[in-house]
Amino acid sequence: MRFPEGAGLRRGLPADAKEEETAMREAKWFRGITVVWAGVILAGSTMRVLADCSSFGLPFTDLGSTAFCAQIAEAYYAGLSNGTTATTYSPAANVPREQMAAFVTRTLDQSLLRGSRRASLDQWWTTTPHYDLGLGTVSVGGAPRLLESDGADVWVANNTTGTVTRIQASSGKVLGTWTGADSASAILIAMGKVFVTGAMSPGALYEIDPTGPPGPVTTVEDILPDFPAGIAFDGNKIWTADAEGFVSIITPGTWAVTNKSGFTEPVGIVFDGTRMWVTDSGADQIDKLNSDGSIATTTPVGHGPNHPAFDGANIWVPNVGGSLTVVRASDGTVLRTFSSANGNRNGLSGPISVAFDGQRVLVTNQTGSLSLFHATDLSPLGVIATPGLSLPYGVCSDGVNFWVSFEFSNKIGVF
Fold first, then answer.
1. 31: exposed, middle or buried (C-beta count within 10 Å: 0-12, 13-18, 19+)?
2. Residues contacting residue 66 through CB under 8 Å, at least 6 positions apart
3. pLDDT number for residue 300
4. What's the confidence (pLDDT) of residue 52?
5. What is the distance between the alpha carbons of residues 199 and 175, in angstroms, rounded to a whole number?
6. Residue 260 forms beta bridges with which residues?
7. pLDDT digits (tens, 9 = 90+) for 27-69
8. Which residues touch 213 (CB under 8 Å, ≥6 apart)?
9. List of the chain residues with pLDDT < 50
10. How high is the pLDDT of residue 29?
């Protein structure tokens, strides 16, 4: 919809300014917000006068003729900015940095909350399933390790049975089982395929076409270094962390492999959109890698770092020694360490894997619990017990729920 020329627009403005103002008016119209203009232009003045902000139901009496009623109303009703008193907004007051931090973080949290798949599906609860009723779990193959979601389904690597199980995320229904993935360990979903590492000596890489029926996997590489434990994709090549001391870079199609040495015991690997990061469990560090696989920088973490996760800003590193390290991806700075020594352990006990769901970070503890954290402010959210289930190992998110593998129970659970 186009507003007629001069309908509330200021005369004498440059063309681009008029266009900007027109766009603003149209945006407010299409958002269902009617802005009432006084429509009076004073002689010799270019001042525009806005009707009372009370038309938005705001309680503030000091807004005057501000042109930002709609924005103030949105911030107020969403709880982002509550005013300086019950009836004053103080629109011209300076904002200290501490208040700015509150505004920005509230905005971030609100955008994550309202923009999540959980919100669109009306799944607001944060409690766990009723394990006491036998609910909330799905039986899979032997010793399930790592798992990943393609957005609709969850794929699980079953280590001792050498199988891969596909589960419908919305219902928990088992859709199929693929065989022949000896020592299946880690899962990658990329390029319309599902890739699985075979953590044995020598290591292997398997491929599944998810558009086909369940059956044997395809072996695309069977001479990787020993025990590939982690796998990631950079948009071009597949990377594996091989626990015997290598990082492998695999070119899809030709399946040519470049092995990079210089590591002690690589276990987990994650891509931050720019660089690969690999946890060197034997050296108690996480390494940021160059595009050729060489080490760019090294960040010391806790004892025995395993399978990390990236939350869009930071990398969360679980250390089996009993701590969790948060590393800023942009510069490798350690932002926070959760541990018993620091008094913020949040139930961490042999943590091994991490996943991010858009708001929260979930950590699996090998001793039988899950630790939950808030991603934006790095605050602990509590500990989740898993009665009747043994050895939480891998974890992923389908965008709504977390899924956790329980290696000694041959099951996965949904949270």
1. exposed
2. 50, 53, 72, 91
3. 98
4. 65
5. 24
6. 247
7. 443 343 333 333 333 333 333 334 468 788 888 989 888 888 8
8. 176
9. 1-18, 20, 22-51
10. 38
pTM of the prediction? 0.81
Q: What are the structural domains, with CATH classification, of the chain?
A: 15-120 (no CATH), 131-414 (2.130.10.10)
pLDDT in tens, 190-211: 999 999 999 999 999 999 999 9
pLDDT per position as a tens digit, 230-249: 999 999 999 999 999 999 99
Cα separation, 48 vs 75, in Å, equals 23
SS (H, E, C) the chain: CCCCCCCCCCCCCCHHHHHHHHHHHHHHHHCCCCCCECCCCCCCCCCCCECCHHHHCCCCCCCCCCCCHHHHHHHHHCCCCCCCCCCCCCCCCCCCHHHHHHHHHHHHHHHHHHCCHHHHCCCCCCCCCCHHHCCCEEECCCCEEEEEECCCEEEEEECCCCEEEEEECCCCCEEEEEECCCCEEEEEEECCEEEEEECCCCEEEEEECCCCCCCECEEEEEEECCCEEEEEECCCCEEEEECCCEEEEEECCCCEEEEECCCCCEEEEEECCCCEEEEECCCCEEEEECCCCCEEEEEECCCCECECEECCCEEEEEECCCEEEEEECCCCCEEEEECCCCCCCCCCCCEEEEEECCCEEEEEECCCEEEEEECCCCEEEEEEECCCCCCEEEEEECCCCEEEEECCCCEEEEC
The share of the chain scoring above pLDDT 70, in percent, equals 87
